[in-house]
Amino acid sequence: MSSSSSPFNNVSVSFTASVFLLMCFLLNISCKSEAQPSPIRNISACYTPSNSSLYQENVKTVLYSLTSKNTSDYLAGFATAGARQGTPDQVFGLFLCRADLSSASCQACVANASKGILLGCVGYKDSTIWYDLCMLTYNYQPIVSTLRVSTYAYWYEYDISDAEAISFNKLLNVTLEVLIPNASVQLAGKKFAVNRTSLTESWPLYTLAQCTPDLTAPNCSQCLQAAAEKLPRGKGGAMSLLQSCNIRYANYSFYNETAVAQLPSPPPAPAPRSAEAIPNSPALAPRSQGEPKISTGVIVAIIFAAISG
Ligand SMILES: *[C@@H]1O[C@H](CO)[C@@H](O)[C@H](O)[C@H]1NC(C)=O
Ligand SMILES: *[C@@H]1O[C@H](CO)[C@@H](O)[C@H](O)[C@H]1NC(C)=O
Ligand SMILES: *[C@@H]1O[C@H](CO)[C@@H](O)[C@H](O)[C@H]1NC(C)=O
Ligand SMILES: *[C@@H]1O[C@H](CO)[C@@H](O)[C@H](O)[C@H]1NC(C)=O
Ligand SMILES: *[C@@H]1O[C@H](CO)[C@@H](O)[C@H](O)[C@H]1NC(C)=O
Ligand SMILES: *[C@@H]1O[C@H](CO)[C@@H](O)[C@H](O)[C@H]1NC(C)=O
Ligand SMILES: *[C@@H]1O[C@H](CO)[C@@H](O)[C@H](O)[C@H]1NC(C)=O
Ligand SMILES: *[C@@H]1O[C@H](CO)[C@@H](O)[C@H](O)[C@H]1NC(C)=O
Ligand SMILES: *[C@@H]1O[C@H](CO)[C@@H](O)[C@H](O)[C@H]1NC(C)=O
Ligand SMILES: CC(=O)N[C@H]1CO[C@H](CO)[C@@H](O)[C@@H]1O
Predict the structure, then answer these.
(1) Candidates 65, 66, 73, 287: which one to mutate for ligand 2, based on the most atoms within 8 Å of Cβ?
(2) The domain 43-145 belongs to what CATH superfamily?
(3) Would you kindly state where each structural domain of the chain is located, as residue ranges?
(4) Which residues form the signal peptide (predicted)?
């Protein structure tokens, strides 16, 4: 886990506004943009594999595998792959789609991500691309059932007034407090929860939290706590993206409420459960549910934070 790094020189964002957005971050100014939702990418320092061509082959094998899953995998919104050819140059990957997506939407997003993640160099030891509908990541170390919270990104839509922010943040915190334990419970092979509440009659608050379903309940919960800490407050909408989970909120219905309602209902309010039996093994087979996707809004403002490991 050694990696060179001064905070920003190893960061690459895969869209044209990246420089602008990074500047927004560095200068700590507020970024508002009406651009399309864009992918956010984190690629770490270049990995020097013992056999670079083999490593790149393995990366391609993993990406091919993730884009060639069957319908039930895309409906489950999660799948893993590994290429162990030439052990020191092994590659592991996984994708996570938002819980409400249809298999077709999930597959389309993953296919897109598999191209996006290859922009630039293939030989990165840890690479992640986030869209608002899906996330794709690969690593030279095993990542399945692994809690990964150190690499993250976030975006937000616009600032609300300081006066509004006081009550808004309170409501957001209260919502997250219930949402996080709910999301940690496995539901139809997924670990997610949504909530719809409102600040005022005309100001709804939609929130969604989701983990990769290979995490145990405590690890999911821990990941979401970390995501909640990094979630921008006092915004009209925002999203916090980690490699193992994410949280998003907005004042409009950004997920498909009908699709979510069709998922089986969660068990009664969970107290922190100390262990939800998910073996520590990569061989997991999440199951179905989901529906067509939803329009996505107007977003952008992307930021990364960095810690070197
Ligand atoms: C590297 O891997 C390729 C297969 O991708 C193989 O043909 C080549 O012999 C390997 N090189 C070394 C030095 O092991
Ligand atoms: C889809 O693939 C998974 C493994 O990824 C397998 O367990 C499942 O049986 C397959 N389902 C169908 C319908 O082929
Ligand atoms: C694929 O990515 C491009 C930008 O990289 C984006 O404009 C497009 O909407 C994406 N398509 C899907 C299906 O996510
Ligand atoms: C949580 O994740 C860590 C790091 O991946 C792992 O070592 C640990 O076993 C997990 N804990 C539980 C309770 O699953
Ligand atoms: C909401 O939670 C954040 C992060 O835990 C905390 O910093 C903030 O003070 C809380 N805000 C309110 C209004 O409770
Ligand atoms: C949504 O969260 C609020 C707390 O802000 C809670 O009171 C309410 O019961 C939740 N609604 C649903 C449908 O879970
Ligand atoms: C969490 O789940 C319980 C049980 O389904 C539900 O009553 C509660 O409203 C949920 N909370 C949130 C914030 O969604
Ligand atoms: C969400 O907030 C934006 C900006 O304040 C506002 O223009 C829009 O009408 C709001 N949407 C809803 C559904 O309240
Ligand atoms: C939302 O889900 C419902 C039920 O699965 C589906 O019929 C509808 O087409 C979806 N809406 C959108 C906008 O994708
Ligand atoms: C900006 C950022 O999140 N950088 C991270 C990219 O990923 C590497 C490896 O996981 C991290 O060390 C960086 O902090």
Answers:
(1) 73
(2) Gnk2 domain, C-X8-C-X2-C motif (3.30.430.20)
(3) 43-145
(4) 1-35
Per-residue tens of pLDDT for the chain, all 309 residues: 333 222 222 233 333 233 333 333 332 223 333 333 457 765 555 566 778 888 889 999 999 999 999 999 999 999 999 998 877 789 999 999 999 999 999 999 999 999 988 876 666 778 899 998 999 999 988 999 999 998 888 899 989 999 999 999 999 999 999 999 999 998 878 999 999 999 999 999 999 999 999 999 999 999 999 999 999 999 999 999 999 999 999 999 999 999 999 887 655 444 443 333 333 323 222 222 222 222 222 222 232 322 222
Is the CB of 49 inside a 6 Å radius of any atom of ligand 3?
no
* Mutation test residue for ligand 6: of 169, 179, 195, the one with most atoms within 8 Å of CB: 195
Check if 307 has its Cβ closer than 6 Å to any atom of ligand 10.
Answer: yes
Instruction: Give the contacts of 88 (CB within 8 A, at least 6 positions apart).
Output: 49, 50, 51
Q: Compute the Cα dihedral for 8, 229, 39, 1 and give only its sign.
A: positive
CA distance linking residue 213 with residue 170, whole number of Å: 29
**With a 6 A CB cut-off, is 57 part of the ligand 1 pocket?**
yes
- The answer to whether residues 132 and 99 touch, using CB atoms and an 8 Å cutoff, is no
Ligand 4, closest atom to CA 219?
1
Q: State whether residue 191 is helix, strand or coil.
A: strand
